[in-house]
Amino acid sequence: MEREFLNIVEANQGIIFKVCKLYRNSKEDQEDLFQEIVLQLWRAFPKFRKESKVSTWMYRIALNTAIAMFRKHKIEIEFNEYTPKEIYSNQESEQSENEERLFDAIRTLNQTERAIIALFLEGFNYKEIGEITGITENYVGVKINRIKEKLKIILK
Question: Could you tell me the keywords of this UniProt record (predicted)?
Fold first, then answer.
């Protein structure tokens, strides 16, 4: 089970990095959030029934963890002997100035808007975004249009 989990996280770690970048500004905070997300994924993994795509499941856990930690005043991360140790790897990616501007703009959005636009940019369809965020497919479309308009204004 541990090997399967590590393979899933390694193959999809970009999801976690993206959520961390959207919800935290500093590298240290991003690393802390990354570890917390992986811990929550590990805890949830035995209950994952593979009824949805792995990416959908990971986004749901990652976004809920990021939002929950955003609300906390003090970050506490517990590690126990069952937490795989080899998960975190540095993923240094060259990002253009435009990508950085986009991330900065997205960070100004509220938590729900960040989650929706992150999923949209990742290529999820409206139905999948609705399943992950708990809103209707039609409302996802409305929210995405509003978010796009906000981002246009911010990026001008």
Answer: Sigma factor, Transcription, Transcription regulation
For the full predicted model, state whether its pTM sits above 0.85.
no
Query: b/e map of 47-76 (b: 16 or more CB within 10 Å)?
Result: eeeeeeeebbbbbbbbbbbbeebeeeeeee
Residue 29: Cβ-neighbour burial (10 angstroms; 0-12, 13-18, 19+)? middle
Does one domain contain both 72 and 33?
yes
Tell how far CA 146 is from the center of its chain: 21
Q: Which residue has the tokens 């998960």?
A: 87
Query: What is the domain range of residue 150?
Result: 95-156
| Model confidence pLDDT, tens digit, residues 47-63 | 988 888 898 899 999 99
63 phi/psi in degrees, rounded to 5: -65, -45
Per the CB < 8 A criterion, the answer to whether 106 and 154 are in contact is no
